[in-house]
Amino acid sequence: MSVPFSGTLRRSGGIVSAIGKQLKSINLKGVKRITVQLDPFAENVKSTREFFFLLSTPKVVQTNPKCVVKSDIVCDRQPASIKFSLIDAAQEQAQVKEIRFNSSNLNTLELLELCNKHVSSLAPPEEVTNKVLTKAEKQKLGGGSKKVLKKK
Amino acid sequence: MANVMQRSLPLASTRSPVLQFLRFRGKINIQRPKEPHYERARVIAVTQPKYPELPKARSCFKTRAERTQEQLVNPYNEIIAREVRNWLNHSQLVAIFHMNSISSEEVFRVRVQLHKQNLHLKSYGRQIISQAVTGTQYEAIMPLFHSNHCIVFSPNQQQIGQLLKITRRVPQMVLLGGIVEQTLLSRNELVAYAQMPGLQGAQAQLVQTLNLAAGQLVQHLQAHQGNLVQVLDVHAKGTGSGNSTETTDES
């Protein structure tokens, strides 16, 4: 009497590796400016602050060095929010000028997932630049028939 | 006869020697032990020790790490908490920043710049700060330490301007709030405090406000005379320039 296998073969690495996985696929090429508005004394700002920190890491910044991450610290206990102002190409694609996350009830992983879903997908595809061919590659492409045998 | 001989002289017999040498020169084998005989294995299995497990109710929702090891309270935390309390009590200015990802070279540069202005950059863990601060008057700053942070202490509250000037050049340090003379201030309030003139400036402003009423009265009394003097001045200048133009025309 055997029951078919159900469940996982590998155990998950926990929330930290999930966050790491999301961070690897984040792409800010379609964003002009990110504004993180938070009140440090309000409730539930931990996830916003962590997300702000993760946006400042070198790998994420490298995806788009022109994108500016600004913080707006307010004192009126309003809920935290993150605003992504899109570049023109991304605006046309998404039909919106900016994307806003109300992050007071989202945790860091959810914020990253939403960011990947809405923002990273708007990144314009990379243009293929002309590759410089080496001598050997040129010979291979062009002079396949003309083989000069070297006499030892 | 032969049996008697065998029984009486055990050392001489060749069949079962009393001393059997097992090891001779070479290395003994302990890494690949021989499978024990069934009977021996049975005895070993029965005699294995069984350790009692914790009652499930207590350990049910704990993770494996929590079940296997308990963290002991480290008395060094108390010493560091005392240091934090000391810093808080003896600094007139305490500023708390959110730290983004920053390289240690930059941190060192900022630390040196701040040190030159008698501002001390410190960072402690949240557990230690909570241990230091809960129950004291500084309990309200606890929400600021949920994420990456650093604290700047200064015994002199006049340095707020210098502090803001230095940290303006560091985009990774985001001012969240601070304590000035035992008063908790938010970020905007701190910036406004920095804009305020010093004590002498404030005193001068007070004197000016006090003299305002009397000054206005004096101004009203002198208004007409001043006006007349100004008009005469303009008139004198006008006739003077008219005379000079007449002389040039004549010549």
UniProtKB/TrEMBL annotation, chain A:
Any Gene Ontology CC annotation: mitochondrial large ribosomal subunit
InterPro entries membership: mtLSU_mL53, Ribosomal_mL53
Keywords: Mitochondrion, Ribonucleoprotein, Ribosomal protein, Transit peptide
A matching Pfam family: MRP_L53
Record localization: Mitochondrion
Similarity remark: Belongs to the mitochondrion-specific ribosomal protein mL53 family.
Protein name as it appears in the record: Large ribosomal subunit protein mL53
Origin species: Drosophila madeirensis
Lineage: Eukaryota, Metazoa, Ecdysozoa, Arthropoda, Hexapoda
UniProtKB/TrEMBL annotation, chain B:
Intracellular or extracellular location(s): Mitochondrion
Cellular compartments per GO CC: mitochondrion; ribonucleoprotein complex; ribosome
Key words of the record: Mitochondrion, Ribonucleoprotein, Ribosomal protein, Transit peptide
PANTHER family: 39S RIBOSOMAL PROTEIN L10, MITOCHONDRIAL
Family: Belongs to the universal ribosomal protein uL10 family.
Assembly mode: Component of the mitochondrial ribosome large subunit (39S) which comprises a 16S rRNA and about 50 distinct proteins.
Name of the protein this chain belongs to: Large ribosomal subunit protein uL10m
Organism for this UniProt entry: Drosophila madeirensis
